[in-house]
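Kindly review this record before class:
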Amino acid sequence: MNYTLHQLQIFLKISQLKSITKASEELHLTQPAVSIQLKNFQDQFPIPLTEVVGRKLYVTEFGEEIALAAEKILNEVYDINYKTLAFQGELSGRLKISVVSTGKYVMPYFLSDFIKEHPGLELNIDVTNKLRVIESLELNQVDFALVSVLPEKLKVNKVELMDNRLFYVASNNRNLSKKLTKKQLFEEVPLIYREEGSATRNAMETFITKNQFSIRKKIELTSNEAVKQAVIADLGCSIMPLIGIKNQLKNKELQVIPVKGLPISTTWNLIWLTSKKLSPAASAYLNFITSEKERIIKERFDWFIDY
């Protein structure tokens, strides 16, 4: 057999996600490239690793066994690399962080200097919705998670990073009459929602319920970027995190509409399981973020603080 580490990595990702398309996205490869590598890998076994039923990909029982073996092999390879760096006096290992989608405007700035200081570290960031973030934390798949709402059923430790403020946002091309009441803004103007499970959506729905608004025109999109583009295109208005619209405000593509009761304020928290034994890399990062967060906020987010 002549399978490569690259093929093992690809097959493991396919087995985890049950999708060639999703695997190609996570591995930053084209779908044809992943399909070819899967075929080349499959050709080395007389028993099917996967099967497609009704357009859905399934991993066979034999394939699951091979995936487990692939994971062990890849972990051993990573350990070899880490031990080599450790003997050279460098901090090594993998740092895995799951981030809610709007957190992608925050988390990279709290990682940049640390990764530059420790080039031997591998960084894995999964940007997804709140439900998936909490699930990955609960299953011990990540070291840390970045959330704006703390999970209710998990025992976690936290470091508060910075404020998260949500405003009513409209396209700069939309002329909203100053005579419109708060109730009219929500009931007569189309409102754009994030998907179920989003912390932004939960905050928005809590505000709407509290004010007893009856939403008639509703659009639902599955990412903060999609919502932002829809608002810019003037499909409707939305409640959005200020942190994600800096450039659009500067370029006058979006405008913040003053609404009584807004902004909604929460806090970005870096959290980890209380029961988790942190790796040397994770412990080093925790020390870094605790001592450096105020400097990072001042240097990177002065516009946000002063808004």
